[in-house]
Amino acid sequence: MKELTINSKSIEIVSNKNVTLIDFLREDLRLTGTKRGCDIGVCGTCTVLINKKPKCACVVKLEDINDNDEIITIEGLAQNDQLHPVQQAFIDGGAVQCGFCTPGMIMAAIALLDKNPNPTRDDIKKAFAKNLCRCTGYEQIFESVERAARTLHE
Q1: Domain limits at 36?
Q2: Is pLDDT above 80 for 16?
Q3: How far is CA 54 from CA 105, 114, 123, in A?
């Protein structure tokens, strides 16, 4: 038996060596905001935060997660019916096109802003090097991260 903290809730699981975090989130917990993309950890679509660090849930095995690890998914961001400032910035900045990559992009942005509250454009580009988007051309995404950084400083 293992106890995980997912979106601030304690969840007991029986670890199965063949289960990935994305399968557990989507199939067992019905947290479908984390999207399945490449299944090999290169597109960033399934990005979640594990101990505030962005990780691709498609390549993380449940057996590799420790009892004291904290996992945050896109569903765990809104508080008191208020979107997280990064979520709101993506909406306000038009960074949401088809929406498929958006949860992973937002999680990567939050990880960046937690580590670097005032990133340069180059910092933002580097932070998104593992996140692919086919719709936006990235400009709106980068601008939305800059907008979120300003909002978080207010």
Answers
A1: 2-76
A2: no
A3: 10, 11, 15
